[in-house]
Design a protein that fits this description.
Helix content is about 25%, strand content about 45%. By secondary structure, it is of the alpha+beta class.
Length: about 140
């Protein structure tokens, strides 16, 4: 497991960036960098299970470990979903965190992912574009 970290400075308040990250419509827009047509089902409440899907009903499910509004969202990935069926995986500490820090000019967004070797290339390829999407949406340029 390797910790990958991606940062971006955004000229918008933490509240605006938080809204872009987790509201249904904007979530679908920024995560298109990973897979076009991505969406989620569930609530972001701590302890709840979130399901992340592609348009073919495949994806993964995760447990929300921390939801500190406008500051941090962390979840741990528990397994994959194939044709809507949950398949548990032993991924260990496969966490994904989004940390927002207010700055003089807006918000510093940090995405921190504990990833296995098999997913590292995917994240390194896709995360910079995803965070750029968040920035564009937060600054109302997308």
């Amino acid at each position: 497991m390797e910790t990958l970290e991606y940062n971006i400075e955004i000229d918008a308040t933490p509240e605006k960036v938080w809204s872009v990250l987790w509201d249904d419509l904007s979530y679908r827009q920024w995560t298109s960098a990973f897979t076009e047509g991505s969406f989620y089902m569930g609530t972001w409440d701590e302890g709840s299970i979130m399901k992340f899907f592609d348009p073919n009903n495949h994806g993964m499910y995760s447990k929300v470990l921390k939801n500190d509004p406008n500051k941090e969202m962390t979840f741990i990935h528990l397994g994959e979903i194939f044709d809507g069926v949950e398949v548990p995986q032993d991924w260990g500490d496969a966490t994904e965190s989004y940390i927002l820090q207010e700055t003089e000019t807006g918000t510093k967004l940090t995405a921190r992912i504990n990833a296995s070797e098999e997913f590292k290339g995917f994240f390194e390829d896709k995360f910079p574009a995803a965070l750029q999407n968040v920035k564009n949406l937060s600054q109302n340029q997308l």
